Amino acid sequence: MVKVEKSKNKESQFTLSWWLFWIFIFLAVIFSLLVPAEKTIHNWVKLIYFHGSVARNAAYFFFIAAGASLVSFWRKDLIYWASSLETVAVIFWFIQSALGAYIMKALWGGFLFNEPKVILALVYSFLILLFWIVYEFKSSKLFFKVATILI
Prior knowledge:
Blueprint: H1 6-34, H2 44-71, H3 78-108, H4 116-138, H5 141-150
């Protein structure tokens, strides 16, 4: 097996992350545009469905990244896949959080901070940022694997 320099792995991880991101965004946009308008909220339903698909993609990517991270304890090459999947999941998570806040403000006239889903999204976003900040300063693969599984 040929050893690959760390910079090439980072570069390929970055490329893989963006390819995954744009493929799934494209699919979410296409499927959202195909949805017919609803009688009460008209075309807002398309944005709601887009928000829902981005949120589900984030959850799926988190689960797959956790699985890849768990397997990477035995297969070291999967850490780059886990890292790429985690990056895409975090990007999707923050997009869906921003979309959810925008839709809530537009359709309900304000932010409902007493809703359990909003509280969970805020706590989860804080934990993701905390793990990412610690990982950036520590750069430990073991910390990354454990944090990915915990998130």
